[in-house]
Amino acid sequence: MDRRNLLPIGQFSQASGLSVTALRHYDACGVLVPAFVDPASGYRYFQRDQVRTAQSIRALRQLDIPVEEVRRLLDGGEQELVAALRSHLRAAERRLEVQRSVVHSLLSRLTEGAEMTHRVTVRQGVAERTLVRGATVDNSGLDAFLRGAYREMYEVAGRGPLTFAGPAFVRFHGVCDDENETLVEACLPFWVQGAQPTDLPDGMTVRELPETTLACTEVEGAAAGFPQILGAYDAVAAWITEHGFAFAGPVRMIYRRWTGIADDPDNRMEIAWPIDEPTEEPA
């Protein structure tokens, strides 16, 4: 065989920036197969034009993209690879924003105290009859779910027409972030003595929510957007714990003023957590 256009694995390793061990691994995985393997010695040789591919593999692995995904992307062609890289960049920027917010929130808590950043108050929440649409989502699907759910509920309300008895709110039954999904309920309260909804679409219900005591804090503008708003949840949870109350239901995110645009300076949200007096634990 004419080996003038081939590079032995050692030289190919130097040109590509991949170790010999990594090249053997990628060969075994089918990600980067050598052009020729000497049947006598088992020594691997690569074509010179495989250097670019190897460098791309090295870069993709530096981005923590799994080997199987690297193989799929390389097989999918340049357009798919470009789209995947742009998606990866957006996700990385989002993770960085979350990390930046977490660091700033923790620094504020350490240097100023949570009570200086989020003032927590207690108020009595009234009993409410609400339209409810629920779904199990993580943070990446939260916005789309809420927009769709409220669009449907306002259509139902308009057919009544229902009289709104308070601002729309969301109930979170657990942690909803980029790593966890939970049941999320979009809620729209309406007047009990007025018109009542009919012909509810599948998945939409009417729920009676009882009167409850709420520990609350408000946030505005950028602080009302994700991930900054997580600091408000933490502050209320810490206050409830420190003051000896019990958590009495899903936390609520109430739209006190909402323009429909995230991070709008006119947005104002309230984080409200149902609380109760602690009960005696059995001995």
Defining traits:
single chain; 283 residues; Multidrug-efflux Transporter 1 Regulator Bmrr, Chain A; 9-stranded antiparallel sheet; 8 helices; Reg_factor_effector_dom_sf
What is this structure, in a nutshell?
The chain is an alpha+beta fold and 283 residues long. The protein has helices spanning 9-16, 20-29, 50-62, 67-76, 78-111, 114-117, 139-159, 230-242, and strands at 6-8, 36-37, 44-47, 121-125, 128-137, 169-172, 182-190, 204-209, 212-220, 246-247, 251-257, 268-276.
Helix fraction by DSSP (H/I, runs of at least 4) = 25-40%
Biggest β-sheet description: 9 strands, antiparallel
Low-confidence stretches at least 5 residues in length (pLDDT < 50)?
A: none
The SSE order reads: EHHEEHHHHEEHEEEEHEEE
Terminal Cα span:
82 Å
- Based on CA atoms alone, the radius of gyration comes out at 28 Å
Count of all domains:
2
> Which architecture of the largest domain does the CATH hierarchy give at level 2?
Alpha-Beta Barrel
Specify the CATH class of the largest domain: Alpha Beta
- Counting DSSP H or I runs of 4 or more residues, the number of helices is 8
| Sheet/helix structural class | alpha+beta
Pfam family, one: MerR_1
GO molecular function: DNA binding; DNA-binding transcription factor activity
Organism: Streptacidiphilus pinicola
Domain HTH merR-type: 6-76
Describe the structure.
This protein is of the alpha+beta class and 283 residues long. The protein has two domains: 6-76, Orthogonal Bundle (Multidrug-efflux Transporter Regulator, Chain: A, Domain 2), CATH 1.10.1660.10; 121-276, Regulatory factor, effector binding domain (Multidrug-efflux Transporter 1 Regulator Bmrr, Chain A). The chain is 40% helix and 25% strand. It is built from eight helices and twelve strands. It has helices at 9-16, 20-29, 50-62, 67-76, 78-111, 114-117, 139-159, 230-242; strands spanning 6-8, 36-37, 44-47, 121-125, 128-137, 169-172, 182-190, 204-209, 212-220, 246-247, 251-257, 268-276. Strands 4, 5, 6, 7, 8, 9, 10, 11 and 12 form a nine-stranded antiparallel β-sheet that branches. It has a three-stranded antiparallel β-sheet with strand order 1-3-2. It comes from Streptacidiphilus pinicola. It holds the Pfam family MerR_1.
